[in-house]
Fold these 4 entries.
Entry 1:
Amino acid sequence: MRTYDFAPLHRATVGFDQIADLMNRVTASESSTNTYPPYNIEKTDDDAYRISIAVAGFSADDLSVDVKEKSLVVSAKKAEEEGKSYLHRGIATRAFERRFHLADHVVVTGASHADGMLHIDLVKEVPEALKPRRIEISAQKAIETDVVDAKAVN
């Protein structure tokens, strides 16, 4: 896998540290890509999203959804069941932890577990101070100032 050096970006820009960190995180080389459990991310509205994670075999008590430092952390641990012996075990119920980095002003509004799926709803709530606004332009009359004619002084 390729690695990129973002040092020129750090030298030529100010205040874009988050973008450089995001690029480093995305391009970080990992020996194996974690694909368990499978998940979907869908856009449900202009500023609303839903993450759906397939968690077959896990109950709501086995699952944990936490928000820590702009990251959504979904984890699960299934207690081992005593006395069961399987001839074939095709349903994976191994422990997992999946992290999603959240953008600024994205908040988790709720989570639900139904039919083997964990649904996590998110909304982007931009504060009023950061929303674009139109500034009214008022028509002011020009302020007349007294102009004094200056005479040349010898």
Entry 2:
Amino acid sequence: MHEGLREDLPSYLNRDLLLQLWPVLRTLLGHTVRTVWEDAFPQLASRTRAGA
């Protein structure tokens, strides 16, 4: 999740699984990486708020 290009993401990531696991994954990521992902994909941030 730290590497790769934005256009690579749909090819390698399962959207539904990422949304489901994001609350757990975000605890394993550093603050900067987490913020970049949540800024780029607002549905991740909203998933985190919904799961809290």
Entry 3:
Amino acid sequence: MQEKKDVTMYPATAVIIFDEQKRILFRKRKEFGLWGLPTGYPLPGETIEEAAIKGVRNETGLKVELKKIIGVYSDPYSQTFEYPNGEFVQFVTTYFLGEVVDGHARPSQKEVSHVQFFGPHELPTDLMPLPPRWLVDAFANEDAAFIR
């Protein structure tokens, strides 16, 4: 991607959560109508870990514990999104493995219409474009974090 002056860059989080059958928790955002992993954005004075935990709680109703960092992703080809209002944003995303410690999966009233676990070979067709390595990296179960 060619550098654009009208692209804003933001830190972000994403959390992959597996259930006992190794299905992946996705949520469907109202503004896009597409499924994606739970995400978060740190506010001033907040850590990236706090943002990830808060993002999962706000979008899915689940309290999670972060187990490890899967990777940090900043590739403009896979991390730049156009919002419905025409704004372009490139995210630098810290991607965590999370484990549910409390709560029941339910969509937030404001941003999320559905929350559901999907098998890795049964993903919804209306899936947000995920960075190409996110699922592969999560299943790789490496100790070291990926930097992509």
Entry 4:
Amino acid sequence: MTSTLQFRAATAADIPAIVDLVTSAYRGDASRVGWTTEADFLDGNRIDPVVLRHDIERPRSRVVLAERDGTLLACAHVAEEGEHGYFGMFSVVPGLQNGGIGKLLLAECERIARDEWTLPDMQMTVIDIRDELIAFYERRGYRRTGVYKPFPHGDARFGIAKRDDLRFEVLEKAL
């Protein structure tokens, strides 16, 4: 029998493990094991440790870790931004993707925004060429808003674009 998934808030001591997890889920050859890879159109960093520390320490912001028997399996960032919840940095160990861990973590982040912070909805930004990822969120009640934000081209803290047409689309779900 496998033990249940446990959720906890990250601390500064978790930063190196979170950076490793997020990088493995999105960048380089290791990320190709899972379906969340961005290796074909982005290189370099996926998360900056200084930005991550700020997200861990600021009010109404939580980096949520999903663990089983003390082993980090997934993470995500949930925060209050304006009058909305924000969801991002969603990462699951590549070999464990499609196993339900991500769905449970997303639901936990939605619960925090809805029940603890009483926010009316959750928003996120997704690179708009990520059709499979957008479909995953749509199956969980998110909708495309048609609102686009620029990709931070030239800011190596968030990756080096291999193409110049990258942009984010805002997805939203009522909580």
